[in-house]
Design brief:
The complex is a heterotetramer, with two copies of chain A and two copies of chain B.
Chain A: E1 16-29, E2 32-38, E3 51-54, E4 68-71, E5 74-76, E6 81-87, H1 91-97, E7 104-111, E8 123-129, H2 132-146, E9 149-156, H3 165-170, E10 174-179, H4 187-199, E11 205-209, H5 212-225, E12 229-232, E13 248-253, E14 256-261, E15 268-270
Parallel strand pairs in A: 8-9, 8-11, 9-10, 11-12
Antiparallel strand pairs in A: 1-2, 1-7, 2-6, 3-4, 3-7, 5-6, 12-15, 13-14
Helix pairs in contact in A: 4-5
Chain B: E1 6-8, E2 11-13, E3 17-19, E4 40-41, E5 58-61, E6 64-67, H1 75-87, E7 94-98, H2 103-111, E8 120-124, H3 141-154, E9 159-162, H4 170-179, E10 184-187, E11 191-194, E12 209-213, H5 218-231, E13 236-239, H6 245-253, E14 258-261, H7 264-267, H8 271-285, H9 291-294
Parallel strand pairs in B: 3-14, 4-7, 7-8, 8-9, 9-10, 10-13, 13-14
Antiparallel strand pairs in B: 1-2, 5-6, 6-12, 11-12
The chains are: A alpha/beta, B alpha/beta.
The complex binds flavin-adenine dinucleotide (2 copies), flavin mononucleotide (FMN) (2 copies) and FE2/S2 (inorganic) cluster (2 copies).
One flavin mononucleotide (FMN) binds at residues 20-23, 43-44, 67, 69, 71, 97, 124, 162, 189-190, 213-214, 217, 239-242, 261-264 of chain C.
Chain lengths: 277, 314, 314, 277
């Protein structure tokens, strides 16, 4: 049911190195920035869960050398728009955060295998926290296009830290906010929330991203209820195209542990195969 | 149109731009038409299945990166069954990079590569020789000679030998490879380096140390390419930090007859086609009709043998 | 206040920041108060008067520079007559860097430096040994051992030995220096490199080749510093590409007990005082009461002897 | 009479690494730019002929590593102003040329030994071409301060290429333009012009800069007429403070050839000691 990792890449030129222009760039929440680019159409044949590899700006203070991988937060082929939601965490994202409207940015993509939506699925559920929202957001866009229901369980430290809720709602998703400060985000609470959705037959597929805690939880829920799921994973990347083999992670498959490239076989993987780290 | 064809012994390449081993795979076909390349060079393969090193396997440093990928390999069987046939549609000559931790193992894998579809062998002898003290074959002339002789006995394919910068004997190693009848030298592999996170106090690579590549490494590789050109008569292929057409030109000027591009493809996946085009433009601007006229055109005023005595730092 | 004092054998430095030989002179006093430094290190001096290499003597490369200054020297006599007295007003210990092209010559100059005002000798053994094949002493353990033994016989002053990166035997050379009773190692000198102007097709250095220094060189020097710390018991002084407080910290983390700053002073003449201050701030932020607690605090999980087998590139 | 090269540097902190702010930056002639900075007073204790070492801006396209030496074109301690006139020739000056008003620039200086003005001199003459004008300009400023006469022989390809003539005139100098296109700039013409000034006792000191041709000419005129002179020389520099010894040039002195550091013993040297290159 889940599409197998695409081992034999298609021979068409599907990966593009293009220069985009910053259309808007603003704070999304404290420490998070939303970057919208105007990019050539050819680079916009995207699927939810794919990512771009971004060449961060260089100045006298910092010279990030490698590109930085960033999930597609939104894409619109007709409008020629591509957006990223990112957390300022180190030198690359700090350099990125200084971009102004009109500045140019070199991006490579779309990259990797996106999320799959099972043919018979009606209700999609995603569970995300922090910047994981960025990766999962295009699922809402796709669910709307396909006329599917989508529930977004958005977790954060406190209600003020909840991000992108309006974005999800605007895309027709039902948002279920959970927060540490309100005591609604701990594993037990989430578990019963998800079990409830499974029992009510309102969860045909579950998606998550990022944290070990969420991975474990979704694996358990999925296994117990027999519901498939996918997780988008991160790993440091050099090429992001599948050439350098730096981005491997271990996965459980057929009783063995196999190494797969996050950039090429992923970044989206079967949730049951993924291993905690 | 400037004539970009270049000869490496028996092989004629349509242009001098090719990828460096380990920084290229067929996945690149999704970015550009692979047949525009002078040659295709595989990631180093080994006879046995290997897992590779722990992550993180790369980190960035000023002007470059470190890697300790560690030659993960699906093994020779998988290569012959899956990879080799998949390269069949390409016209660009395929060079297979191989390695092994012992001379016999090295000879054994090369003996199995005398196959249609393989245009040449690149011997990655920068791997530890586990039968002696664990130093790489390429670090010393005697071990280089022994391994290259063994490989030469197993194949008539063009045999390229890739040197390491982790040595104080570049000239001697180059000459040893030539004496053992290598057909060309690839200069050079990465140089052993290290990075640490000052705050977490952890090494930035899972394997503690790794090889430096990228622009930071270029002046070292260029020096080695020049030393090699000056001390052997077989062709030299330059490799190390090449990102711009000036970099390509610098290696050609010192006498390399082709170049390999590695890390630059990570930063700009379209680097190789761009370098091919830029080289056309550069040579036309400089008034050359063919790249072969430009190769080795350095105006150094140095006699051929002055170079071997320059291995001390200034 | 974080305690920055650091010990290098018998010497105690008020802080671990000092200049690298050849990138410092008393002229620096016009920029800042020299007594803020942990030590003062002279340009390498030789017994005889030497002219140095042809110009251009430097060029820039990505993330660094090449130099082929070539140890111009006014000779030992001029040093003793003019320089040594001029250093008298400074409280920071004076380390005199020396070199010679033969073992006897090396021993001879060191024998004349057992003088008040000189706190230590730094032996720059990265110079060609003209009595053998012209390779630098520091490229091989046997020549390192012989020259260091000879120097040790001539002086009871702290004897620092500066290693070269132009070798495949860092660990063996470090151990040879220790066995010959060096008091500390300075790791490292520059690595042999080259640059060419792609358009004029001329080498960018008058001397054809030169040594790479600056940030591009740092990962190599850090690797060597770590290898040295792991393979000898004498103190190691880190040197190579240090420009930021993180760079200083990385060398301290791998176990260097002090650092030398070279090229960074060319880019920012105030680099050393700034690094001293930044190190205070860094250590305070990281919760250290003294720099000695931070030195060698790497979390590498590697056993001490695993390192010598890592000299092959990955 | 000429001050000897200053071998023993003073122990006071006379060299400063400071950050200036661009006040104006404009084209001076085709390929030449005039850059005016606002800098802290401490760095403005300058003398004509001295220079600064400039940290060129870095971006994704070019990362000049070493600083670039630039003669002081003008300085005004009271106003806190420092200016440079430079030719865009390579990556460093190209990077410099992109600076906008308000941008910050790290400069080190003042550096080197400036020109000397003999105590009994009344008439100063300078001969310059191209960017050499930048180096000699502050002499006009100084001559005015000291109430001395100054003639500036400004050479260029054609009248349109003449630079800084107004600047010299504004400083009270008498400008004698000579050009290739008008046939007034060749060695013979210049020689007779200078000989004329010497005979008329209107040349007590001669200054030049840069070119081999001008050096030779001024050496001959000076030697024949017994008039002292100085030349400002260039050489590639790393430290510019006297530490690295990369910037040496050969000079004739006492029957021998000696090597001197352009950054420290120079950049101004006795014209008879200078050697062609
Ligand atoms: C497929 C994929 C999609 C991603 N999508 C997003 C997103 O939409 N929004 C977002 O904020 N972040 C995302 N990340 C994480 C993002 O790549 C890192 O936050 C970023 O690389 C940090 O760079 P830095 O220079 O700021 O940090 P530094 O710590 O200075 O980076 C140093 C090095 O480590 C790498 N690195 C650091 N953290 C990570 C990480 N978590 N994953 C991979 N490499 C890392 C950097 O790329 C760089 O090579 C994604 C990662 C992957 C692999
Ligand atoms: C004391 C002194 C004062 C100077 N004053 C001026 C001035 O007022 N206006 C002006 O336009 N130029 C002046 N120059 C020359 C100026 O330094 C060079 O034009 C500049 O360094 C070129 O840098 P680039 O990156 O554009 O050229 P590139 O060719 O890319 O530079 C490459 C390297 O060569 C060095 N270099 C190139 N040309 C020269 C040169 N002529 N002298 C010294 N180093 C050079 C650069 O500094 C750099 O290290 C002066 C030079 C010196 C030594
Ligand atoms: C990620 C990575 C993997 C590499 N793997 C190999 C390899 O398998 N075999 C090999 O001979 N060289 C390998 N190399 C070295 C490159 O082929 C090349 O020699 C080196 O990177 C210098 O070139 P560059 O600076 O252009 O990258 C690898 C380099 C990198 C960066
Ligand atoms: C211009 C220059 C001159 C140097 N001269 C010497 C020298 O005389 N003796 C010596 O032992 N090292 C010399 N070195 C090497 C430095 O001391 C130092 O080992 C090297 O530059 C690496 O440090 P860095 O990257 O901080 O510059 C010189 C380096 C440079 C850049
Ligand atoms: S980043 Fe290179 S293979 Fe994944
Ligand atoms: S530039 Fe360093 S001594 Fe002159």
């Amino acid at each position: 049911m889940l599409s197998p990792a695409q081992l034999e890449p298609s021979k068409e030129r599907s990966i593009h190195e293009v220069v985009g222009t910053v259309v808007t760039h603003r704070d999304a929440a404290s420490g998070y920035r939303l970057l919208e680019l105007d990019v050539p159409q050819e680079a916009l044949d995207c699927r939810p869960g794919q990512f771009f590899h971004i060449l961060c700006p260089v100045d006298g203070q910092s010279q990030p050398f490698l590109r930085r991988p960033m999930s597609i937060f939104g894409y619109d082929r007709d409008a020629g728009r591509l957006s990223f939601l990112y957390k300022v965490s180190g030198i690359g994202t700090a350099a990125l955060s200084g971009l102004d409207e009109g500045d140019r940015l070199n991006v490579v993509g779309p990259l990797g295998n996106g999320f799959t939506i099972p043919q018979n699925a009606r209700h999609l559920v995603l569970v995300a926290r922090g910047v994981g929202l960025a990766t999962l957001a295009p699922l809402a866009q796709e669910a709307r296009r396909l006329g599917l229901g989508l529930k977004a369980i958005c977790s954060a430290r406190s209600p003020e830290h909840l991000m992108s809720i309006d974005h999800f709602r605007a895309l027709g998703a039902e948002v279920i906010p959970v927060t540490d400060s309100e005591g609604t985000s701990d594993p037990e609470q989430l578990r019963s929330l998800l079990d409830g959705l499974a029992e009510a037959d309102e969860m045909d597929m579950i998606y998550t991203c990022g944290s070990n805690r969420l991975l474990k939880l979704c694996q358990q829920v999925g296994r117990d209820a027999g519901i498939p799921g996918e997780i988008a994973l991160e790993q440091q990347m050099a090429c992001a195209i599948g050439m350098c083999q730096c981005c491997v992670r271990p996965f459980r498959r057929g009783g063995a542990v196999v190494q797969e490239r996050v950039c090429r076989e992923g970044p989206v993987f079967d949730i049951q195969e993924a291993m905690e780290w | 149109m400037v004539d970009l064809t270049t000869r490496i012994g028996a092989l004629t390449l349509q242009n001098p731009i090719m990828p460096a081993s380990g920084t290229f795979s067929r996945d690149m076909a999704e970015v550009f038409e692979l047949d525009m390349l002078g040659a295709l060079v595989t990631k180093t393969i080994t006879a046995e299945v290997r897992g590779g090193n722990p992550t993180p396997r790369v980190c960035e440093v000023d002007g470059g990166m470190l890697n300790s990928i560690g030659i993960p390999s699906k093994g020779l069987g998988a290569f012959l069954a899956n990879e080799l046939p998949a390269y069949a549609p390409y016209r660009a000559p395929l060079i297979v990079s191989v390695s092994a931790p012992s001379i016999d193992g090295f000879a054994e894998i090369v003996s199995q590569l005398n196959l249609p579809g393989i245009a040449g062998i690149e011997a990655n002898i920068s791997c530890p020789n586990i039968e002696e003290d664990g130093k790489a074959f390429a670090m010393r002339p005697d071990t280089t000679a022994r391994v290259v002789e063994a490989l030469r006995r197993e194949t008539d394919l063009p045999l390229w030998v890739k040197l390491t910068p982790n040595t104080g004997e570049t000239v001697e190693v180059a000459q040893a490879a030539e004496a053992a009848r290598a057909d060309a030298l690839v200069v050079a592999n990465t140089i052993l380096s290290m990075a640490v996170d000052a705050r977490t106090r952890r090494p930035k690579l899972g394997n503690l140390m790794g090889g430096l590549s990228g622009p930071a490494f270029k002046p070292i590789a260029l020096r080695m390419a020049y030393q090699s050109v000056r001390s052997v008569d077989i062709p030299v292929i330059g490799c190390g930090g090449i990102s711009t057409v000036e970099d390509v030109a610098e290696f050609l000027v010192v006498g390399a007859c082709a170049v390999q591009v590695g890390t630059a493809s990570f930063i700009n996946p379209t680097a190789m086609p761009r370098l091919r085009d830029d080289l056309q433009g550069f040579l036309a601007e400089e008034g050359y009709a063919s790249v072969s006229d430009f190769i080795g055109s350095i105006r150094d005023g140095a006699p051929g043998d002055a170079v071997r005595f320059m291995e001390a730092a200034p």
